[in-house]
Automatic annotation (TrEMBL):
InterPro entries: Pre_C2HC_dom (IPR006579). Residues 52-120 form the Pre-C2HC domain. This is Pre-C2HC domain-containing protein. It comes from the Eukaryota. Transmembrane segments: none annotated. The lineage of its organism: Eukaryota, Metazoa, Ecdysozoa, Arthropoda, Hexapoda. It holds the Pfam family PRE_C2HC.
Amino acid sequence: MHEVMLTPSTPDAYRSIIRYLTEGKYAFHTYQIKSERVYRVVLRGLHRHTPLHEITRDIEKQGHKVRGVTNALHPKSKMPMPLFFVDLEPAPNNSDIFNICRIFYSEVRVEEPHKRRDVVQCTRCQQFCHTKSYCNRPPRCVHCAGEHDSTTCLKSRDTPATCTLCSGDHPANYRRCQVYKDLQNDARKRTYTQEKRSVDPPPMRASAAVAGSSNKFPILYHLRLPATPR
Ligand SMILES: [Zn+2]
Ligand SMILES: [Zn+2]
Ligand SMILES: [Zn+2]
């Protein structure tokens, strides 16, 4: 089995490659186009019950296009917190939102969201670093490693699970699976070096070392080429 990674330079190229792969029934996954990705910030200082449409209206009055506002819930109690996530449509003035200091008669603070440190796992094929909306690989069951959607699994409760990643007797989303633990460690090391690097002024070409990041449309995707399309 061969894995190939492609980095098209324009959105049109991206779309025609996707069309070709989909029609040829190739197994592949992709990522969201960066130019379509929302710009997310965190808003602090508002009352927890501030109506979302008022927040939207106020931010739009201050020159931004809002895709959505959500109220953050406490992870345990699920109660609303005085914290909101604001998703802006990508635009050149996105970072101006950090200058906003009043919304809906309150003083607010706009912050960057915490970076996600967990490696994401696809719930369709159980592999990492992409999500099921961008996955076109054959499904793998999280319970039994079979080639079916996890929701249609017929494995009985008393037969042990099989991990499709390491063949161990646990489900594929088990956080102590060695494959996951190794990846997570690698990702931590990478974030650490990136954070260290971002303290020093980075040389202009620093990001060019990362595949695709020097590109205007850094879309990467891996695809598996079978001998013949399925
Ligand atoms: Zn997948
Ligand atoms: Zn199954
Ligand atoms: Zn495992």
